[in-house]
Amino acid sequence: MTAFRSYLYAAYMVATTVLLAAVLWPTLLMRQRDALFAIQLWARTMLGGLKAICGLGWRTLGAERRPTGAALIASNHQSQWETIVLCVAVPRPAFVLKSELMRVPIIGWWAARAGMIPIERDGGATSLRGLISVAKQRLAEGRQIIIFPEGTRTAPGQTTDYKPGAAALYSLLKIACTPVAHDSGRYWRHPGFRREPGDIRLSFLPEIAPGLRRPAFEDALRHAIRQESANLSPAAAGPVGAHAAEAPLSAPTPPQAP
Tens digit of pLDDT for each residue in 6-48? Predict the structure, then answer.
């Protein structure tokens, strides 16, 4: 039954994305915040379908530490789920995305119009300068910049080296960083379509104050995310679906329709 529901949800994602794109395409011609409204509506629709079809919801830890103004957020990356939920977990997200995603039909159109931040993964110093330039603009707009330091999806319990983007943003923008950890990989399996029922936990951790040297920041960020990820691991959290103690996340008030 789980496999059937997982494939049904995959079909739901495709059909609903196409339908919403057909309805919301005028937002591509409107203001940046209108395109962001469309993205957040899409994300809420995806999360609602995930709960209804697969029985997979989400809960939070540390909601009081969730940034609402200009901020830098660095999260671990285990599945597609966190790219969806972080669209609505903070009010005005600006994701750092691989530049090739900006060329993908539908996804790339709205990402570009909503002011997401492209980066060339192999672009070296030139790419980092472009990243910092656009990130400054987004912070001036009061956006929450979201980056996945691993740069790719990593299975629960596995580790990989961090890419330089998060440390560059922290050091050059002289801004605090809020680490985020979750256990999405236990439920939203990658690769594949399998979605296990239960509740993914999203944890906002204490911010890392600005001013650390880059190696010290990277160590602090890596330790915070890995420690919390270990706390959320099956060994610490018990069987999948057996963590009803946390309170559901109260998402920010949805933006008004354009």
Answer: 999 999 999 999 999 999 999 999 999 999 999 999 999 999 9
CA 155 – CA 160 distance, rounded (Å): 10
Name the token pair of 157. 């319990």
Please say whether the beta carbons of 60 and 54 come within 8 A.
no
* pTM for the structure as a whole: 0.88
Both tokens of 22, joined, read 């057909």
Instruction: Select from 214, 109, 121, 113 the least CA-distant residue to 163.
Output: 121
Nearest to 180 by CA among 210, 224, 211: 224
| Dmax (CA) of the chain | 51
Pure H helices in the chain: 2-24, 32-49, 81-89, 107-113, 124-140, 165-173, 214-231, 234-237
SS3 of 113-167 = HCCCEEECCCCHHHHHHHHHHHHHHHHHCCCEEEECCCCCCCCCCCCCCCCCHHH
Query: d(Cα 90, Cα 56) in Å, to the nearest integer?
Result: 20
